[in-house]
Design brief:
Largest sheet: 4 strands, antiparallel
Shape: globular
Radius of gyration: 20 Å
Mean pLDDT: 96
Strand order of the largest sheet: 1-2-4-3
Number of strands: 4
Strand content: 5-15%
Structural class: alpha+beta
Low-confidence stretches: none
Oligomer: single chain
Number of helices: 11
Order of helices and strands: HEHHEHHEHHEHHHH
Length: 242
């Protein structure tokens, strides 16, 4: 886990089914809220389907990876069982907690897959843009039923690159003791980190940039203001009003 990095270039060599079975077992053992297992994974190995997803997202690693996993929050399964058991299903997906529970479960499952794949020497790349690029089209393409929405995608393959490890925030900016840290020491730590990221981007292997950390991340937020995820969530049966 200390060596984890995003791999965006893969060899043509396929990931074996035995390796995928190991990853799937790690996913199945993911901790979840209430043991409700409010998530599902769509394993995509069909190249034509991966190409369609690439066309919608522009993320090249989707079409070049061996397997692409779509991690979804999923309340469709429990809704089906509510009918089988003749138990009224409350409108949990219309609450903020319902949305959070499903999202956290799917994200934990993805981290289980990342860790398992890394243990096998495979490369991975988490692709959040799969959620926001074209949610209606991707939901239709993957035939997601009501009560299911895509949280994040994960590309898996045999690495063709080994990029430099990106610097992460120092522990004092990430881990707080007993209470949230005061602003002044937090800003001091973050300013040092911002300078470290700027220096890293100037000398890293591959394409080099002048990007810092804070301004660059805020620019992502500005772009994300154009996403309309609330409508996409409502179309899939999630309407977090409470």
């Amino acid at each position: 886990m200390m060596e984890r990095r995003s791999i965006r270039r893969y060899e043509r060599e396929p990931v074996t089914q035995e390796q995928m079975d190991f990853i799937f077992e790690a996913i199945r053992n993911t901790p979840t809220s209430y043991n409700g297992q409010q998530f599902s994974v769509i394993d995509i190995d069909d190249q034509e389907l991966k190409l369609k997803l690439y066309e919608l997202t522009g993320q090249k690693q989707i079409k070049t990876c061996s397997r692409f996993l779509a991690f979804c929050a999923d309340f469709h399964k429990i809704t089906l069982m509510s009918g089988v058991k003749d138990v009224a299903m409350p409108p949990f997906t219309s609450t903020a907690d319902g949305l959070i529970v499903g999202t956290v479960d799917a994200a934990l499952a993805m981290m289980s897959a990342v860790t398992a794949a890394g243990a096998l020497g495979l490369g991975t790349c988490c692709i959040g843009y799969a959620r926001t690029a074209a949610p209606a089209e991707i939901s239709s393409l993957l035939r997601l039923p009501q009560g299911v929405y895509l949280v994040c995608g994960l590309a898996i393959g045999v690495p063709r690159e080994m990029p430099d490890l990106k610097p992460k925030q120092p522990r004092e900016a990430m881990v707080h003791n007993n209470k949230y840290s005061d602003d002044l020491p937090l800003v001091n730590a973050l300013e040092k980190y911002d300078a470290e990221v700027t220096a890293y981007n100037a000398v890293r292997t591959g394409s080099k940039t002048t990007n810092d950390w804070a301004t660059h991340i805020i620019s992502y937020y500005v772009e994300a203001m154009n996403y309309n995820m609330l409508d996409a969530l409502r179309a899939q049966g999630f309407d977090p009003r409470k």
